[in-house]
Design a protein that fits this description.
Layout lengths: L1 H8 L15 E2 L4 H7 L8 H18 L5 E6 L2 E7 L2 H4 L6 H13 L1 H4 L3 E6 L3 H9 L4 E6 L1 H4 L10 H6 L6 E4 L4 H6 L4
Parallel strand pairs: 4-5, 5-6
Antiparallel strand pairs: 1-6, 2-3, 2-4
The chain binds zinc ion (ZN).
The site of zinc ion (ZN) has 6 residues, from helix 7.
Length: about 190
C-alpha cells in the first residue's frame, strides 16, 4: 500500500508538455469532475519512469499478434509482462493487460497486484478495466486512448475512467497519453 499512497500524494506538479495527462483519483466523484480536475503527475522522476515503463509495454505490443502490450510495476520493478495473444491462441480475452495480470497471479499471487501500477500501450477495454479494478491495481498508465484506438479498430466505447467511476470500492489513479503517438504508430500500415 505504501506505493499506492505515494501515487496518490504526488499528483500535484504542473502538466508536462506534449502529453495529455489526466491523473486522478477515481472515486465516487462524477466523471466530469474527474476530467475537469486534470491533475498532472509530474513530480520528481515520475514522467521519466512512466516513459521508461511505457516503452517496455510498447515493446511487448510489438511482439503481440495484435499491437497491445502491458507491464505491471511494483516498487520500481517490473513484476509481470503481457502481450496480446488472442489471435494465436483463439482466446478473445487474451488482451495484453489480461495476460500480464494472469502471469502475475500465476507467478506471484494476488497480493503482488494490490497497489501496483499497470502500464499499457492502449487504454484498457471494459473487460480489462474490470480485471484491473477487481485486482485492486492502484494506478493505471496508458498510451493511446479508447477514442484514438477507435479510429483504427473496434473498441467498446467506454473510457477506463468511466468504468472506474462505477467502482468506488476500488480507487485508482489514471494517467493517459504517455507515448500515445508511438502506440498509435503500431497500427500504421
Ligand atoms: Zn482489454
Amino acid at each position: 500500500m505504501a506505493y499506492h499512497e505515494r501515487c496518490m500524494s504526488s499528483s500535484l506538479a504542473s502538466l508536462p508538455s506534449r502529453r495529455t495527462v489526466f491523473g486522478m483519483l477515481v472515486s465516487a466523484a462524477t466523471l466530469s469532475a474527474q476530467y475537469a480536475a486534470g491533475r498532472a503527475e509530474a513530480a520528481d522522476d515520475r514522467p521519466l519512469d512512466d516513459e521508461r515503463f511505457m516503452r517496455l509495454a510498447l515493446e511487448e505490443a510489438r511482439q503481440g499478434d495484435f499491437p497491445f502490450g502491458a507491464v505491471i510495476v511494483r516498487d520500481g520493478r517490473v513484476i509481470a509482462k503481457g502481450r496480446n495473444v488472442g489471435r494465436t491462441t483463439g482466446d478473445p480475452t487474451a488482451h495484453g493487460e489480461m495476460v500480464a495480470i494472469r502471469n502475475c497471479l500465476a507467478e506471484q499471487g494476488r497480493a503482488a497486484l494490490q497497489g501496483s501500477t499497470l502500464y499499457t500501450s492502449g487504454e484498457p477495454c471494459a473487460m480489462c478495466m474490470g480485471a484491473i479494478l477487481w485486482c485492486r491495481i492502484g494506478r493505471l498508465v496508458f498510451a493511446a486512448s479508447v477514442q484514438e484506438l477507435a479510429t483504427k479498430i473496434d473498441q467498446i466505447a467506454l473510457s477506463s475512467a468511466e468504468v472506474a467511476t462505477k467502482a468506488p470500492f476500488a480507487p485508482i489513479t489514471i494517467t493517459g497519453g504517455v507515448l500515445a503517438g508511438e502506440a498509435m504508430q503500431l497500427f500504421a500500415k
